[in-house]
C-alpha cells in the first residue's frame, strides 16, 4: 500500500517528461529531425504567440565569448560529440530540435558574456541519459512554462537575434505583459546545411498569466481607421464649376457694346468684324470649310468667319474685306 502511491507518482513523472518530445511530423517547421519539442499553442497575435511547454530534460554547456555566434560554435562541438558517442555508454543518438541558446540581457560590447547552449534529449533518454565524459557538459531540467515567441527566417546571428528580441520586448511592454527580463532564448530548428526556408525564434519566459490581448486598444491592432471628411455630404462639389456671376468676363460682353463705344477706339481704326459687309450667296462665291479649322470645332455661319475665310482665298473676291495690314493708318 505504501509503494503504490509512489509508483503512481513515478509513472506520472515519466509520462510528463516524455510528453514534451514527439515526432517531427507534428510541426510544420521542425522537419529535419526525427523528434522535436512539442508544445501547446495558448494564443496568437499579429506580433507574437504564447506557447505552453511541458517539463523536459536537456544537455547543456556554457561558453564565454564576445559574440553569440562564437560562443554557440564552441558549445555546439561539445554537445555534438556527446550524441555521437562521447558518453559513458558510447551511445549514439539522433539529433533533435530545437537547439536553445540562453542569452543574457545585460551584456556590453567590450565585455564577454556567458552563453548556454542546450540539446534536447531524445524521448528514449529523457529519464536515464548516458553520463557525459566531458566535465563541461551537464543536464538541465526545463520546468513547465509559458513563453512568448516571435518567429523569423534567415540565420540566427547576434544582430538578428538582438533585433527580434528587441521587437518582441517592445510589444510585450506595450501590452503590459510580465516576463523574465534577465535573459531570453535564441531558438534554432535547422542544420547549417539548410540554406532556404529557415526557421528561428526568440523566447521570453512569461511570468504570471500570459497576455494575448491589448488592454490599450479596443480594436484589433493593425486595423486601419477610416478617414472621414467633415461636412462632405452637405457641401456641394463646385470645384469644377467656376463662379462667374460676380466677375464679368469679356466673353460675355456683346460685340455691339464694344462697337457702340467709339470714344474708346482710335479714329483711324479699321472696321471691326461686326461692321464688315455681309457676304451672301448672290454677292460672292460660297466659301467651304476652312482648311485651318479643326473638324471637331463648331462652325458658325457668321460674318466674322466668312470674312476670315475669304481672306485666305488665293484669288480675292470683289466683296472680300480688305486686310487690315494693307490699310493706310497714317
UniProtKB/TrEMBL annotation:
Polar residues bias: start-end ranges: 250-260, 292-309
Q: Which UniProt keywords apply?
A: Cytoplasm, Signal
A Pfam family it matches:
SOUL
Q: Region Disordered: start and end of each range? A: 212-330
A GO molecular function term, named singly, is:
heme binding
Q: Does the keyword Lipid metabolism apply?
A: no
Question: How far does the signal peptide extend, from start to end residue?
Answer: 1-19
Q: Which SUPFAM superfamilies match?
A: Probable bacterial effector-binding domain (SSF55136)
What superkingdom heads the lineage?
A: Eukaryota
> Which stretches does UniProt call biased (Low complexity)?
225-249
Q: Where is this protein chiefly located? A: cytoplasm
Note whether Transmembrane occurs among the keywords. Answer: no
| GO CC terms, sorted | cytoplasm
Question: What InterPro entries does this protein's entry cite?
Answer: Reg_factor_effector_dom_sf (IPR011256), SOUL_heme-bd (IPR006917)
Q: Where in the cell is it found?
A: Cytoplasm
Q: Which family does it belong to?
A: Belongs to the HEBP family.
Give a short account of what the protein does.
May bind free porphyrinogens that may be present in the cell and thus facilitate removal of these potentially toxic compound. Binds with a high affinity to one molecule of heme or porphyrins. It binds metalloporphyrins, free porphyrins and N-methylprotoporphyrin with similar affinities.
How does the record describe its quaternary structure?
A: Monomer.
Protein name (database record): Heme-binding protein 1
Q: Which organism is it from?
A: Salmo trutta
Q: Which gene encodes it?
A: LOC115178381
Amino acid at each position: 500500500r505504501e509503494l503504490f502511491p509512489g509508483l503512481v507518482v513515478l509513472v506520472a513523472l515519466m509520462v510528463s517528461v516524455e510528453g514534451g518530445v514527439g515526432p517531427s511530423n507534428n510541426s510544420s517547421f521542425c522537419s529535419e529531425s526525427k523528434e522535436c519539442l512539442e508544445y501547446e499553442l495558448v494564443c496568437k497575435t499579429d506580433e507574437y504567440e504564447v506557447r505552453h511547454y511541458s517539463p523536459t530534460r536537456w544537455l547543456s554547456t556554457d561558453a564565454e565569448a564576445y559574440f553569440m555566434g562564437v560562443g554557440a560554435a564552441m558549445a555546439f562541438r561539445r554537445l555534438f560529440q556527446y550524441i555521437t558517442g562521447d558518453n559513458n555508454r558510447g551511445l549514439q543518438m539522433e539529433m533533435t530540435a530545437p537547439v536553445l541558446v540562453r542569452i543574457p540581457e545585460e551584456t556590453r560590447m567590450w565585455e564577454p558574456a556567458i552563453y548556454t547552449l542546450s540539446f534536447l534529449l531524445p524521448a528514449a533518454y529523457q529519464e536515464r541519459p548516458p553520463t557525459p565524459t566531458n566535465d563541461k557538459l551537464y543536464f538541465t531540467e526545463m520546468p513547465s512554462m509559458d513563453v512568448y515567441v516571435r518567429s523569423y527566417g534567415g540565420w540566427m546571428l547576434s544582430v538578428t537575434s538582438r533585433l527580434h528580441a528587441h521587437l518582441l520586448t517592445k510589444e510585450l511592454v506595450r501590452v503590459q505583459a510580465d516576463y523574465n527580463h534577465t535573459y531570453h532564448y535564441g531558438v534554432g530548428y535547422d542544420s547549417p546545411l539548410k540554406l532556404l526556408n529557415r526557421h528561428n525564434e526568440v523566447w521570453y519566459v512569461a511570468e504570471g498569466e500570459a497576455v494575448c490581448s491589448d488592454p490599450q486598444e479596443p480594436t484589433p491592432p493593425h486595423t486601419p481607421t477610416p478617414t472621414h471628411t467633415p461636412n462632405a455630404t452637405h457641401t456641394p462639389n463646385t470645384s469644377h464649376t467656376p463662379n462667374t456671376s460676380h466677375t464679368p468676363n469679356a466673353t460675355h460682353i456683346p460685340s455691339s457694346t464694344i462697337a457702340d463705344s467709339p470714344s474708346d477706339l482710335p479714329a483711324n481704326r479699321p472696321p471691326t468684324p461686326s461692321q464688315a459687309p455681309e457676304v451672301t450667296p448672290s454677292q460672292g462665291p460660297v466659301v467651304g470649310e476652312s482648311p485651318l479649322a479643326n473638324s471637331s470645332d463648331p462652325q458658325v455661319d457668321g460674318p466674322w468667319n466668312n470674312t476670315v475665310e475669304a481672306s485666305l482665298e488665293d484669288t480675292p473676291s470683289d466683296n472680300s474685306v480688305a486686310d487690315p495690314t494693307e490699310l493706310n493708318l497714317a
